[in-house]
């Protein structure tokens, strides 16, 4: 049995479309079989994306995914689609954490 590769995935701007793309990808059975995913994000934003996309939030608790919740930009602290300093800072922190995971050897790739 081949071990699945580990991919670190940065959510990007909480006010953008990254969270929706992530939950839709995680909901795809083919994606689930391909890798183990380390998602750097604010969990509340991913849960909000699940509601928006009609996907059960239980997808975030599956064995092929690990949410690394930075608790830095809760979904009730910004407006979707609107540029903000806080969201920009959070997006940078997600990228920084994902890069750290790759540099530490916990992830083989970064998205």
Q: Number of helix segments?
A: 4
The H/E string reads EHHEHEHE
Sheet bearing the most strands, described?
4 strands, parallel
- Global morphology: globular
Give the amount of beta strand, in percent.
15-25%
Instruction: Give the mean pLDDT.
Output: 95
Strand arrangement across the biggest beta sheet:
3-2-1-4
Give the total of beta strands.
Answer: 4
Determine the fraction of residues in helical runs and give it as a percent range. Answer: 40-55%
How much is the radius of gyration in Å?
13 Å
* Class inferred from helices and paired strands: alpha/beta
Q: How far apart are the termini?
A: 25 Å
Q: pLDDT below 50 for ≥5 consecutive residues: which ranges? A: none
Explain what the structure shows.
By secondary structure, the protein is of the alpha/beta class. 41% of the residues lie in helices and 16% in strands. The protein has four helices and four strands. The protein has helices spanning 18-26, 29-34, 43-53, 85-103, and strands at residues 6-10, 36-41, 65-69, 109-110. The protein has a four-stranded parallel β-sheet, with helices on both faces. Strand 2, helix 3 and strand 3 (65-69) form a beta-alpha-beta unit. Helix 1 packs across helix 3. The protein is globular. The two termini are 25 Å apart. The model has no long low-confidence stretch (mean pLDDT 95).
